[in-house]
Each structure stands twice: as structure tokens, then as C-alpha cells.
């Protein structure tokens, strides 16, 4: 392959390269800047740089070409990749509004929400199926925590508490 003809950066461009190199915490950007410095300051070939940074010659060439075309911005990772997000702000708003209502008022056959029930309900309403952990994280961002229900036994009998205490004493005594 023929060697890349790397343009000599101006003093201002060198200063910017140096500042970004010294200040970045992005290890990938740091390594790409090293590639540029090795090419510009030491006139190393792509093959020599590849052996130093433990990368392929093709990868080094690609980053040097992007730097020549776009400057430092070309060395940064481009956004993207992965599947598009399932969750929309409308989904989150509906979830937060639903969890604040009693399930029975929304036509559900139970009286308390659980994460799984919320995930199922939201899938029915929106067609978007997410895990109950995703539901928990959305609720957490909305400062809502579902706790386990506390089951209590009560009675309309005015003497219920007295009778309950009396039965506990007899059970332990």
C-alpha cells in the first residue's frame, strides 16, 4: 500500500491536539490521537503505528483519514448502534400516571400493583413489552418505589383489639 500523505498541522492545530490529548478521559480518543501524533511528529507508516498501538494497519489508516477529513471530531466515536429505544416519554408518562391509580379503577382484577402487573398492563395498553426491571427503573426516576404489601387483619367489631390481645396471651401462655 502506498503511504498516506499526512498534512503538517499548524501550530494552533497542534496545540488543540495536545490539549485534547492531555485532557481527554476517553481511552479510545486518546489512542487515536496517539496514532495522529506518531504519523505527524515521527512520520511513522500506518504499519509501524499499527504495531505500536496493537491495532490493524487498516484501522490506523481509517482513523488517520478521518482525522485528515474531519479534524479531532473525526476521531470521536459516532453516536448510534444498537436498537432504537422502546421507551418513549409518552410511555413513561402513562406508566407514572397508571401507578398512581388503583388497579381496579383501571379495570384490573387486583387491588395492588406489582412490577410484573405494571409491565403486563403497560404491554396491553401500549403494545410495548418491557421487563419488570425496566418498569422499576422508570418508577425510580419518577421517585416511586413499590413496596411489598403489608397484610393486616381487621374487624368491624369494636372489641376486636381487646380480643386479639387476649388470644395472643393465651397462645403464648
UniProtKB/TrEMBL annotation:
Residues 149-173 are annotated as: Disordered. It comes from the Bacteria. It holds the Pfam family HTH_32. InterPro entries: Homeodomain-like_sf. Residues 162-173 have a biased composition (Basic residues). This is Transposase. It comes from Reticulibacter mediterranei.
Amino acid at each position: 500500500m502506498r503511504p498516506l500523505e499526512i498534512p503538517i498541522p499548524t501550530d494552533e492545530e497542534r496545540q488543540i491536539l495536545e490539549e485534547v490529548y492531555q485532557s481527554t478521559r476517553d481511552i479510545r480518543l486518546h489512542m487515536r490521537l496517539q496514532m495522529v501524533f506518531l504519523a505527524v511528529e515521527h512520520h511513522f507508516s500506518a504499519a509501524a503505528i499499527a504495531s505500536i498501538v496493537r491495532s490493524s494497519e487498516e484501522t490506523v489508516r481509517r482513523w488517520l483519514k478521518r482525522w485528515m477529513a474531519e479534524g479531532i471530531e473525526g476521531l470521536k466515536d459516532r453516536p448510534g448502534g444498537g436498537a432504537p429505544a422502546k421507551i418513549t416519554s409518552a410511555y413513561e408518562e402513562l406508566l407514572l400516571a397508571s401507578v398512581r391509580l388503583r388497579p381496579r379503577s383501571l379495570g384490573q382484577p387486583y387491588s395492588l400493583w406489582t412490577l410484573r402487573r405494571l409491565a403486563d398492563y403497560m404491554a396491553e395498553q401500549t403494545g410495548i413489552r418491557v421487563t419488570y426491571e425496566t418498569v422499576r427503573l422508570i418508577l425510580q426516576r419518577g421517585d416511586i418505589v413499590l413496596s411489598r404489601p403489608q397484610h393486616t387483619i381487621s374487624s368491624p367489631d369494636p372489641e376486636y383489639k381487646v380480643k386479639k390481645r387476649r388470644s395472643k396471651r393465651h397462645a403464648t401462655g
